[in-house]
Design goal:
Elements: E1 2-7, E2 11-17, E3 20-25, E4 35-42, E5 45-49, H1 54-64, E6 69-74, H2 80-83, E7 95-96, H3 100-107, H4 112-115, E8 119-120, E9 126-129, E10 132-138, E11 147-151, E12 155-157, E13 170-171, H5 180-191, E14 196-198, E15 205-206, H6 208-227, H7 234-237, E16 245-246
Helix pairs in contact: 5-6
C-alpha cells in the first residue's frame, strides 16, 4: 500500500492495491473524526464506497478531473457523512438495502428522493465491477441499514461498525441503546472473517492481527453496557479493554 499519489491540506489519496484507492480526509469541519472514501477503478469508470460530505466529494471530483465516470455509489450506510456527497454526482446507481430509506427519513427527510437507493441489494446480491467481485451482508448496529461489503476474497468494508482516528487510536462504537445487541452480533460476524477491514473512518486498512484485539475490546465495552442495563460509566465499561479509546463523550449517546 502506497500513499504518495495525492495530497491536499486535509486529504490524501492512498493506493491500497491496483485499481483500489482511498481518499482519506482529516477530521470533518465539526471536529469529529476523519472520513474515508474508497474508489474501485475499471478502465474509465469508478465505483465509490461511501460519498462523504459534499465538500469532500468536491475534492475527489477535482482530483479525478474527468478522468473517470462515476458508475455508482455504495454507501456502507445512509448517515449524512456517508451520502451527502451524492448530491454532486451524476449517477443513477445508488446501492443500498431496504432499511436505507428509514435512515434517510430520520436524518435527511427533505432529500429522500435524491439520496435513496436506486438499486436494492440483499445478502444474495453479487456485483461484478472490473477486477472486483462484491457481495453484501446486512450488519445492523451503528445504523439499521449498515452493511458489510465484501471485495474479492481479500477485504470487507465494515462502515462504522469499527471506527478509529486517522492516527489509529481506537474510537468508541457510536450506537444507540436499542442497537447495542445488533452491534454486538455484527462485530461477532466480522470476528469470523479472515479479511482485511476497510473502515469508514480512520485507519484505511486494518489487518487481522490488529483487528482481533480491536473487535474484542469493542465487544467488551458493549457487553458491559448490556450487563449493567446501560448504567455503567465509560471508565467501568472500558476497564477490561487493552487499548485506549478516544471519543469517551460518545458514551452519552447510548440512550
Amino acid at each position: 500500500m502506497t500513499d504518495n499519489l495525492c495530497y491536499t491540506m486535509d486529504m490524501k489519496k492512498i493506493e491500497i492495491e491496483k485499481n483500489l484507492v482511498v481518499y482519506q480526509f482529516e477530521p470533518t469541519r465539526d471536529g469529529n473524526v476523519g472520513s474515508n472514501l474508497y474508489m474501485l477503478l475499471n478502465g474509465a469508470e469508478a465505483l465509490l464506497i461511501d460519498a462523504g460530505y459534499a465538500h469532500q466529494m468536491q475534492e475527489v471530483l477535482h482530483d479525478i478531473d474527468g478522468k473517470y465516470t462515476i458508475a455508482g455509489v455504495i454507501p456502507s450506510h445512509f448517515h449524512p457523512d456517508h451520502i451527502d456527497g451524492i448530491r454532486l454526482l451524476d449517477t443513477q446507481a445508488i446501492y443500498g438495502n431496504p432499511y436505507a430509506v428509514n435512515t434517510i427519513r430520520t436524518y435527511l427527510p427533505e432529500d429522500e428522493a435524491l439520496l435513496s437507493p436506486t438499486v436494492i441489494v440483499d445478502n444474495e446480491t453479487k456485483l461484478r465491477f472490473g477486477d472486483f467481485n462484491l457481495q453484501f451482508e446486512h450488519a445492523p448496529g451503528h445504523s439499521d441499514c449498515s452493511m458489510l461489503i465484501f471485495i474479492n476474497r481479500t477485504y470487507v468494508h465494515v462502515g462504522d461498525l469499527y471506527i478509529t482516528m486517522n492516527d489509529g487510536t481506537d474510537v468508541l462504537p457510536f450506537v444507540k441503546w436499542t442497537n447495542v445487541p445488533s452491534h454486538i452480533e455484527s462485530l461477532k460476524r466480522i470476528q469470523t472473517l479472515s479479511r482485511t477491514l476497510l473502515t469508514g473512518h480512520g485507519t484505511v486498512a486494518i489487518d487481522e492481527t490488529t483487528a482481533k484485539p480491536g473487535i474484542e475490546d469493542r465487544l467488551s465495552y458493549l457487553q458491559a453496557l448490556l450487563a449493567t442495563s446501560n448504567t455503567c460509566t465509560v471508565q467501568e465499561a472500558l476497564q477490561n479493554s487493552r487499548r485506549p479509546f478516544a471519543k469517551h463523550e460518545w458514551r452519552e449517546f447510548v440512550k
